[in-house]
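User: Assemble these into one structure.

Assistant: Restating your components, then the assembled model:
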Amino acid sequence: MKRIAAALLIFCCIALPAFAANGYELWLPYHKVNNTVLAQQYTNTFKAAFVPGSSATVEAIRKELSLAIPKLTGNAPVWNSASSNSRLLILRFDALKKIDVRAKLQPPPSHKEGYSIFTTSMNGASRLIVTANTDEGLLYGTFHLLRLLQSGKSIQALNIVEAPKLDVRVLNHWDNLDRHVERGYAGQSIWNWHTLPGYIDQRYIDYARANASVGINGTVLTNVNANALVLSEEYISKVKALADVFRPYGIKVYLTARFSAPIELGKLKTADPLDPEVQQWWKNKAAEIYRAIPDFGGFLVKANSEGQPGPQNYNRTHVDGANMLADAVKPYKGIVMWRAFVYSNEVPEDRIKQAYNEFQPFDGQFRSNVLVQVKNGPLDFQPREPFHPLFGAMPKTQLMMEFQLTQEYLGFATHLVYLPLLQKEVLEANTFTGNKPNPVKQVLTTKVSDSAVSGIAGVANIGSDLNWCGHPFAQANWYAFGRLAWNPDADAKVIAQEWIAQTFALKNQASAPIILRMMLRSREAVANYMTPLGLTHIMGNGHHYGPAPWSDNLPRPDWNPVYYHRADSTGIGFNRTASGSNAIAQYSPQVAAQWNDPKTCDENLLLWFHRLPWDFKMKNGNTLWNNLCLKYQWGVNEVRTMREEWKQVEQAVDPMLFKQVAQLLNVQEQEAVWWKNACLLYFQTFSKKPFPQGVEKAGKTLEEYKKMRFPYAPGNG
Ligand code: GCW
């Protein structure tokens, strides 16, 4: 018996630390607070906690606190049955008002998801109050409080009022029903359709908790390259099971609607959006879904893009298609998110101009429950793009943002890249439309009508990997997406600090700024070792892994890297000024004027808009060729610095986590070198110039790089 006990003890000692670092708990590990004063403060607050109510959401709040507080403080919260002697009150404002009018009450914002957290004195004693007009508001307020606790903040004098600036804050899962995740690098889809609805994986609940903790309030479960089957009766019952799990956490489910579903499922002859039978089919389908899921969010649609069916198959327009679906979900307050990611093989036009050309003329014609979902840039989630010209150009249409969290073009889940820096660059970019400062974030948050809803989407980087996202630091991109969706004004650096404070149980606090520096370095690093100076879309075909600027064999010209860089002996870059494709004219005159001149154009977008000779003199007096080489090298060097920085935190982080990240940084460095070498050797065949001083020699020949093949690179469509 003793021996078993001893063996068990040894097992626990070995197993426990490993479990703690496996990353499953994301930013909610609720590490023990090691500051005794704060631990005492938190314990005291939770010694008498009053969280009345019996709704599923209030139940979720109590559950979360029951999980968190013992881990944080070592003491379980004590639920009080009366408000009078409670130190912490989490309750709706209508109920709070009835309790004691002598207390100074901080009303929550009128927004249904808003909340306030404040300290006040009630009946002569100090109270901490979390209040909101709805249970969802209380949930968000509770998670805010837990964020303070996990980050070691005092909760003695608080006065917080919060409300989200965007209404719909959704993840887009590009998950297929067979569990393959398109552009997914963290395992299979977390939705196990086969065992639904009978089996509810704990992961579904933890997914909901994680999302609620950062304010994400919706999830599109299925790939935009859609399968109509998910709209069948059998699958609706599976979707309902997930919706039931998510509801207490304030999360609505949405589905992708395959435009041809009336043919595939309904056996109709057409999916023409103006055909009454087709319209009725969608109305019936919507009614069926809402019978099962009364708070179903609505549909996301990719139509007439990359082979997906759409209204244009019937000579109808995006407006015809989107409005038909919008009418079907309108009685239930559903919405339609209609993607603007379109470009046609048949149109001999610069690909990046096509979405604007197709959508802008329809401004003002979409129903008020339609959001047009626009990618951050006009091409396709590249390491750096200018903001999409549709932002600001459709003032009568509610546009929503689509960011990609999965790192399809940013090193998969192997590279450490903190995406909010890229995202903030776009959100803060000034469209100058309407002849006034009008940053992209303002375009998103401005409602075009009283009944309009605003929104933002992030293509999820989540999979069945134990740590959800593959790279431990990729979790920061999920976390930060939620925080930025809640408040696009938020500072990317502050969000990173929050995430670090909650995620890592650092053994010394001096490590936090080092980890922060790595994250802040990562965005420029990747843009430079992959596509410096505005180069773009020079990755491998199909799987999009690694560099292949030479690639020119895909059937569509605008799928080939050579289409984008246009390098030859005379120079490099894509002329998008008036003497070229004139894509620049899609921006407001102020923006266009700045980018139109290579001398004033942001250097990091130079070759996006301009075609220039190799010896073009840049601001630093150096030639374009030399700058290009040095930028690539700089990107590589930055990764090396990140690697060194990580070594400095070895003693402060969990050994398993340390090793994981150290190995990934090694691979990132190797791949950064690969990008630099392959691209520079290739471009050198045109520039015919030597690498400048400071640029390392390539380890392989261009031919060797060209021969590399990756038939099983993950995530392919
Ligand atoms: O970036 C491209 C991806 C496709 C994706 C498409 C889209 C879902 O390579 O895999 O398809 O964008 O956004 O629709």
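The chain has three domains: 23-162, 181-499, 526-574+611-706.
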